[in-house]
Amino acid sequence: MSKKILVETSARHIHVTQEDLETLFGKGFELSHKKDLSQPGQFATNERLDIVGPKKTLSGVSILGPVRPATQIEVSLTDARTLGIVAPIRESGDIKDSGACKLVGPCGEVELKEGVIAAKRHIHTTPEDAKELGVADKEIVSVEVNTNGRSVIFGDVVVRVSEKFSTAMHIDTDESNAAGCSGEVFGTIVKLMGKNV
Length: 197
Ligand SMILES: [Zn+2]
Prior knowledge:
Layout: E1 4-10, E2 13-15, H1 18-25, E3 35-36, E4 43-52, E5 57-65, E6 72-74, H2 77-83, E7 89-90, E8 99-104, E9 109-119, E10 122-125, H3 127-133, E11 140-145, E12 152-161, E13 168-172, H4 173-178, E14 185-190
Parallel strand pairs: 1-13, 6-9, 7-9, 10-12
Antiparallel strand pairs: 1-14, 2-6, 3-4, 4-5, 4-8, 8-9, 10-13, 11-12, 11-14
Bound molecules: zinc ion.
């Protein structure tokens, strides 16, 4: 039974509501489609925004489509430190009382009281692959990434199972750099003694 899983690195990015999109880019604006992402229906766009924090600004951060019910900014902990904000580690969509920032677009600005998170590392998988991998929805597992000279076992990886997913693990740029990931990387789900068993 193979337990190898594709590990993809998510760079900092922004999800927006249609309302915020129109404030930032103008009335009736729609996201452009640049490239499909691995998760079905998700896509990279040509639209970029500046994220303004109390300390610094991160310029030209990509928006991912489609639009969502809530605006959410996913940054690394290094980014959060640069911005001068605290980004809690959360699953996507769980933004209550998360970090604050200002988004600046070509036509306007949006002041957000919350919405900035560091994404909790996670695995997207289909019900069929979950069976093969021996994992269940919401289970917390560890994943070993065996890179040349920087092998890491990532704990606290949450599994999300849906027919709508394509099987892949997502980590951010801090995590990816910690493991020295480059090119196509695969991880292995491991069950540690006394933890995640
Ligand atoms: Zn993901």
